[in-house]
Specification:
Blueprint lengths: L3 E4 L9 H11 L4 E6 L12 H9 L5 E6 L4 H9 L4 E4 L7 H10 L3 E6 L17 E5 L14 H14 L5 E5 L4 H10 L3 E4 L9 H13 L5
Parallel strand pairs: 1-8, 2-3, 3-4, 4-5, 5-6, 6-7, 7-8
Helix pairs in contact: 1-7, 5-6, 6-7
This protein binds D-xylitol-5-phosphate (DX5) and zinc ion.
Length: 224
């Protein structure tokens, strides 16, 4: 699959959730990213599984990418899988049993992801690589949209790419946090395949215009 763009609904006009989701898909988004925050693992509080039900009922059929920023994670994995999630990621620090939580995601019929905070290394991956479909590399600290990309994490993306190549692991690299148009080529060049973008898509210029600009930039990069 070429680079895939996942707009983050955290940043859309929530009063018009269905329309905002539909316009993202119409504009060419591969899927929609949903940030689940519990006011415990992160300071913010957002959506429960009902958001998937609402989107599916509205007619949204694209992949729904659930980013759990909660602790614990297992019960929510099952709840989100039951209402139409396509892939689910969680932070390793938030689960007592990482291997079990990853298995639970796949057993529930979804693709499994591990989300790594800016300060989290690759140690957690060592013994679970065969149970991971994608890694969500956070390029801001989790909890809020609209933050600034932490520049030295560009190297971490490239480092993760080399790590996965060394282990011959067919795992996609997703990057989440502070992605802006002027950064996107460097981020793709470093090895990112799935681009999760919030405030740079949902703003006054409109998602159709913004998404087209990102697509044009990515089209000039080598395929991932
Ligand atoms: C941050 C979230 C991100 C965020 C992205 O905790 O995980 O998905 O919504 O939004 P921007 O692109 O504005 O950083
Ligand atoms: Zn996210």
């Amino acid at each position: 699959m070429p680079h895939a763009i996942y707009p983050s609904l955290l940043n859309c006009d929530l009063a018009r959730l269905g329309e905002e989701a539909l316009s993202a898909v119409t504009a060419g988004a591969h899927g929609l990213h949903i940030d689940v925050m519990d006011h415990h693992y992160v300071p913010n509080l957002t959506f429960g599984p009902w958001i998937c039900t609402a989107l599916r009922d509205y007619g949204i059929t694209c992949p729904l990418d659930i980013h759990l920023m909660t602790t614990p994670v297992d019960a929510l994995i099952q709840s989100f899988a039951a209402v139409g999630a396509t892939r689910i990621s969680f932070h390793p620090e938030a689960s007592l049993h990482i291997d079990r939580s990853l298995s639970l995601i796949r057993d529930s019929g979804c693709l499994a992801g591990l989300a790594l905070n800016p300060s989290t290394g690759f140690d957690h991956l060592t013994y679970v690589l065969d149970k991971v479909d994608f890694i969500l590399l956070m390029t801001v600290n989790p909890g809020f949209g609209g933050q600034t990309f932490i520049p030295h994490l560009l190297d971490k993306i490239a480092c993760l790419k080399r790590y996965l190549q060394r282990h011959q692991a067919p795992i996609r690299i997703a990057v989440d946090g502070g992605l802006k148009l002027e950064l996107i080529k460097a981020i793709a060049h470093a090895g990112a395949q799935d681009l999760i973008i919030g405030s740079a898509l949902y703003n006054e210029r409109g998602i159709a215009h913004n998404l087209t600009q990102f697509q044009h930039s990515l089209a000039e990069c080598l395929p991932p």
